[in-house]
Amino acid sequence: MESGQLSTRHLLGIQDLTVSDIQLIFRTADGFKDVLNRPIKKVPSLRDVTIANLFFENSTRTKLSFELAEKRLSADVINFSAGSSSVAKGETLLDTVNNVLSMKVDMIVLRHPIQGAAIYLSRKINANVINAGDGTHEHPTQALLDAYSIREKYGDVKGKKIVIVGDVKHSRVALSNIICLKKLGAQVKVCGPPTLIQKHIQTLGVKVEYNLDKALEWCDIANVLRIQLERQDIKYIPSLREYAIYYGINKQRLARLDHEITIMHPGPINRGVELNSDVADSEHSIILNQVENGVAIRMAVLYLLAGTK
Predict the structure, then answer these.
(1) 156 and 268, same structural domain?
(2) Is 139 a catalytic residue?
(3) Confidence at 88, pLDDT banded by 50, 70, 90
(4) How many structural domains compose the chain?
(5) Which listed residue (111, 137, 265, 298) is catalytic?
(6) What is the pLDDT of residues 39-56, one digit of tens each?
(7) 140: exposed, middle or buried (C-beta count within 10 Å: 0-12, 13-18, 19+)?
(8) What is the distance of C-alpha 228 from the center of its chain?
């Protein structure tokens, strides 16, 4: 497996990683992808490590991906769900974590609805902390697997034109992707209704395009986000039907382009809203590759962070 060490002992956000860190994670993931394609998909790399998955928000893909990555590395795994815990009785995040740590846990994977929760925790405890999504802030492993999937398809991320389409305002995936892709030398635009793109986003080095057809004509890759209704306290769009007309990607829209583009999506997909099934399940899509690469990337992150003890 790749030798080397990350410059940080936590993964709290992409902004904390150097380009060398990202490339090290990618090279390590290459090795783990080979492992995942073997008949026996398990290595003893983290045999003496205990990892707690603390999810204070609902999750399917990320939680399953982390759990599978941990088990492929032979770690001992504790799964925690806030809805069926003492959190429902008013227990604080720090009390919950300290109770978990008293069980001799080495690493914590945290998803939390409040942005900054992982950063706060990393300053209070000795275990390694991995941010699996905090509010509308960051989702670093998703950005890493997205960039890795682009590298896998095109050989490199540098110079690629990538448009992030949809609910950029409420998306932690968008922020992490922008930071990661810019660090790796990609050109990035965001596209969506003005109400779903935050002011001053250009300060991150991205351009804004409100016309989807123009954005798709420009790009090599479209990373499509869902409308996050659960994070919207007011109505940002007239209706999902109207959103689908102006910002939904279907086969007809792609057929009008003068070149082929690649379609990505972090999931879950609202089929018929941001993506039609004829696109999501087409040869343009690498969505299932993203899911597969998520396990390898998370194996790499867990393995490398375990070496920073």
Answers:
(1) yes
(2) yes
(3) low
(4) 2
(5) 111
(6) 999 999 999 999 999 999
(7) buried
(8) 15
On whether the CB atoms of residues 132 and 55 are closer than 8 A, the answer is yes
The identity of residue 7, as a single letter, is S
127 phi/psi in degrees, rounded to 5 = -70, 155
Is 275 in contact with 265 (CB distance < 8 Å)? yes
The answer to whether 265 is a known catalytic residue is no
Q: Is 233 left (phi over 0), alpha (psi -120 to 50) or beta?
A: alpha
Which of the residues 9, 61, 207, 253 is marked catalytic? Answer: 61
pTM for the model? 0.94
Higher pLDDT, residue 9 or 84: 9
Q: Which CATH number belongs to the domain containing residue 37 in this structure? A: 3.40.50.1370
Kindly name the residue from 63, 112, 139, 183 that is annotated as catalytic.
139
The amino acid that residue 155 corresponds to is: G
Strand, helix or coil at 27? helix
Backbone φ and ψ of 154, nearest 5° = -110, -10
| Eight-class DSSP state of 133 | E
Active site residue 61: yes
Q: Which of 89, 199, 235, 259 is catalytic?
A: 89
Q: Is 38 a catalytic residue?
A: no
Residue range 24-38: average pLDDT? 96
Residue 7 falls inside a structural domain: no
